[in-house]
Specification:
The structure is a homodimer. Chain A is of the alpha/beta class. Chain A folds into three domains: 3-47, no CATH class; 65-475, Radical SAM ThiC family, central domain (TIM Barrel, Alpha-Beta Barrel), CATH 3.20.20; 526-582, no CATH class. Chain A has 23 helices and 15 strands. Chains A, B: It is an enzyme of class 4 (lyase).
């Protein structure tokens, strides 16, 4: 992507939170602020940063965590699975190679030594505080013991495949900041490897906490390699998509062996969490027959198709324990897929959806028996008044395992605006404890997101996640709001821009009405114009009543006000004027 | 505006709901739908229409309601107030005329005969069912007695100035569909009369239920004349803005006489509701001194400025009864302004805001003594968890008078995206009973909305209002969602577009990925591509389990499923496969 697009805003700079004792440095974005008109200095504001150190796409990122993983002494390098050209699809086989082979270093895969489990949950339960936990505690500005105990209890996860050492640890759990995921990936009908790496960097620049590579077209393996080697955030996938490619798109030809091989391929590459649709049981499939929109989850319908074709139980369910054993060797987290989620508000909270949730709760506890980290996926399309039931039911059934939802969309009538219909539901569901929100872009239901759509989706979801953090009273969440509001009140236009989620857009919108550079320091806003301004009058009020002496008068006036209201609030009491007078 | 922009979507047509007995015809938009793949016919869907019959801006609309008003025999024409060039500002005085005088007919103003009250509330309380009430009942698909009784109780209003006969009656109250308002109007820094009429027609095309003309620049009187004569929806204003222009923008020079003259000027033109900041009492002003953002309401700060300058009580409060007498003669509704609303989440639900609300409750009941219709304005900037308290407190204090809120915005950090930050709060506050939502555009806090911003703001607020209607279980609200979802499931792409709030945008987004015309009838979506499609598998499931016989099997399977879950949901029961088998 062009450097200008990736350039930082001039008032933003890279800074670090440091834990010297343990040699940990957490990157943050520092926003420099101007002084207030009165001359009062406004200290810089530090905000959470997801974009990482930045990388050259063909080289990749440094292996940030490799040392931490090695020092634990419980992993070993090994030859790894034999690379197979079909991993990149039929056209790669025809060509004899992927369309853009990864030229950077291919790390030797690691796995747990025999009999060992290398998951963050395993360490947390053993009382071990890992560097990943310390990094997260610094990043979230909380006690590391909160991090350890929440991971140990299964109420939070730190997705961190030992084969993705480039990633910066982050935590997903209701006790922490609400996170957002951005989906990227090619399909049978569009796009190139470079475009996908570009989208990855673009998504993390704007604030994506994790990225899912949902590629379903050619070069799936190699696209994923490029993405993981360049990703400062955890990468999630839906392995069944690649497995389906390996059987020429015919769901009935899928087998556990092909799926297992695909999972190991992805574990060795460094995928941090995988969506597994093990809750789509044969007996639940008919529950969808009367729905308005049947099964809309791609993975869910693949497994439903398989179950129908074979009249056998979902092999992801029958082989679930084997999957747990594999994930425990790489610290891959489950994202238990909601294959039967409603695809329309008419189908919300129905028998099929909740039957599957019961099974996801069962599987959550089975994974925990292997110390494997788990989050549970949720819908979808849900009318606003039914949203809360989804998170509360999931939290109760799944003993507090993190909930990870797509939206939900609260109406079906606005294709082209589903980032908005879903951000409304996302704020509601996050307020009550959903830990991560999967973004929805304006192209939802219509096509594949381009870069603008990815940006719009990420920023819209940062809004939903932040609004939920404020509603949950998350410590410090309001600092950025208050700093921006103070800047607004003081007409520090440049600070308003640099404190906003999208400074360039805010500044461009301002300039449409008042392009002149001086306007950015002018003490009026374009809504009122120079002649009259409400904010200026407010400042006159503060000048008149803001002093220490005035505060005492205000206290007195509050009493008067109470008396007045007590008196029925109807009679006009002249003496209250005297109190109001500064004389 | 160019006709192409105002053209209807090809599948949309103008139809009418008729009450032949009373000669009432309510325009609706009829959306034609294709047959389902199986050949099943899908009847056309009729949806609420706000755009009216359409008008030539220089001619205006027919005087739709004039006959109804005349037949009641309680109004009389009169010479009306002497036109004054200063009504259009200083530059008009200099020029000797407004910059684009209204060339259409200037109706002779009407007012109530001496001693009469001509408000819909007056008729409703007297048990009279007006044509306006019948029109509304047909439009809302409800019993006319519900309309009459809600208006009589003050829980709903039908803004309908007798001097705005061009308007199509609509109702604002929590028992009815949630409405949205779009703000237009020029300012000291921009725009022309034609642009404002253009924005009016554009806003009603996309679904604005009312429009407020917030002009603060030149030609205020004439701009309003053009707007009212062309408006099929009620028009609201904030008269203090024009009054301030008449005193050269110096709030301290405002007097009751100047304000009263301005109100009568606007009553004669046909303004349907006016924002009156009578709750900004002198003793409340100091309560804002410690706020992060002081007073951000323009009207509120004008009155606060006046109170400070004179150390006298707000003249809108002291002369409130006179205002009621005037409004009762024209059926102008109060929109009691929240001049002390919070301008940042930090100031939400504070002493100043709630002190003013107490006074607005007092004034609501005073207006009702004059049979004058009232709605109460609300904030503003409110964190998500504090939103609900606002509507519940207002409903309790104001005895159910309609609440009309701006957003609220649930975070301050996203200038450029405040249509989204506010739609989140708007959905929450409407869910609990707010009757009308004032839109917020992407330009909020930054500049004046252009046409694209107006469209984005209106559609975003249609989403919030509709999501709230669904959450409230409003009868029939889900029909459009279900029709669109069915079309989506059946790959009726063209129907998906024509059923959506913005068909052109939905179709354009689809075409970016799959431009070919055949794709619009293709049985796959661009997300999965032609090779595999989840919706197609769902249809296979329906084919297999959707039949009558299969339904019985499903019923049986539900039992099995219950047994299974009762049995602990862990053991794999082979017989459930047999049930799943169609053999």
């Amino acid at each position: 992507m062009s450097t200008s697009e990736m350039e930082q805003h001039p008032a933003h700079s890279l800074a670090f939170l440091t834990d010297d004792e343990h040699g940990i440095r957490v990157p943050v974005t520092e926003i420099a602020l101007d002084d207030s008109p009165g001359g009062e200095a406004n200290g810089p504001l530090r905000v959470y940063r997801t974009s990482g150190p930045g990388s050259d796409p063909v080289v990749g990122l440094p292996a940030y965590r490799a040392e931490w993983v090695a020092e634990r002494g419980d992993v070993e390098p090994y030859a790894g699975r034999e690379r197979n050209l079909l991993d990149d699809g039929r056209s790669a086989v025809r060509r004899g190679e992927a369309s853009a082979e990864w030229k950077g270093a291919r790390p030797v895969p690691l796995r747990a030594k025999p009999g060992r489990r290398v998951t963050q949950m395993h360490y947390a339960r053993a009382g071990v505080v890992t560097e990943e936990m310390r990094f997260v505690a610094l990043r979230e500005n909380c006690d590391v013991e909160l991090v350890r105990s929440e991971v140990a209890a299964g109420r939070a996860i730190i997705p961190s495949n030992i084969n993705h050492p480039e990633s910066e640890p982050m935590i997903i759990g209701k006790a922490f900041l609400v996170k957002i995921n951005a989906n990227i990936g090619n399909s049978a009908v569009t796009s190139s490897i470079a475009e996908e790496v570009d989208k990855l960097q673009w998504a993390t620049k704007w604030g994506a906490d994790t990225v899912m590579d949902l590629s379903t077209g050619d070069d799936i393996h190699t696209t994923r390699e490029w993405i993981i080697r360049n990703s400062p955030v955890p990468i999630g996938t839906v392995p069944i998509y690649q497995a389906l490619e390996k059987v020429n798109g015919d769901a009935s030809k899928l087998t556990w062996e092909i799926f297992r091989d695909t999972v190991i391929e992805q574990c060795e590459q460094g995928v941090d969490y995988m969506t597994i649709h093990a809750g789509v049981l044969l007996r639940y499939v008919p529950l969808t027959a009367e729905r308005v929109t049947g099964i809309v989850s791609r993975g869910g319908s693949i497994m439903a198709g398989w179950c129908l074709a074979h009249h056998e139980e979902n092999f992801l369910y029958t082989h679930f324990d084997e999957l747990c054993e594999i994930f425990a060797q790489y610290d891959v987290a489950f994202s238990l897929g909601d294959g039967l989620r409603p695809g329309s508000t008419a189908d919300a909270n129905d028998a099929a959806q909740f039957a599957e949730l019961d099974t996801l709760a069962e599987l959550t506890k089975r994974a925990w028996e292997y110390d494997v980290q788990v989050m549970v996926e949720g819908p979808g399309h849900i009318p606003f008044h039914l949203v809360r039931e989804n998170i509360e039911r999931q939290q109760e059934l799944c003993d507090g395992a993190p909930f990870y939802t797509l939206g939900p969309l609260v109406t079906d009538i606005a294709p082209g605006y589903d980032h908005i219909t879903s951000a409304i539901g996302a704020t509601e569901i996050a307020r009550y404890g959903t830990a991560m929100l999967c973004y929805v872009t304006p192209k939802e239901h219509l096509g594949l997101p381009n870069k603008d759509d990815v940006k719009t989706g990420v920023i819209t979801y940062k809004i939903a996640a932040h609004a939920a953090d404020l509603a949950k009273g998350h410590p410090g969440a309001h600092e950025r709001d208050d700093a921006l509001s103070k800047a607004r009140f003081e007409f520090r236009w440049k600070d308003q821009f640099s404190l906003s989620l999208d400074p360039a857009t805010a500044e461009a919108f301002h300039d449409e009405t008042l392009p002149a550079e001086p306007a950015k320091t002018a003490h009026f806003c374009s809504m009122c114009g120079p002649k009259f301004c409400s904010m200026r009058i407010s400042q006159d009020i503060r000048n008149e009543f803001g002093s220490k002496e005035a505060q005492e008068a205000i206290a007195g006036m509050r009493e008067k006000s109470q008396e007045f209201l007590a008196a029925g609030g109807k009679v006009y009491l002249p003496e209250t004027i005297a109190v109001g007078s500064p004389e």
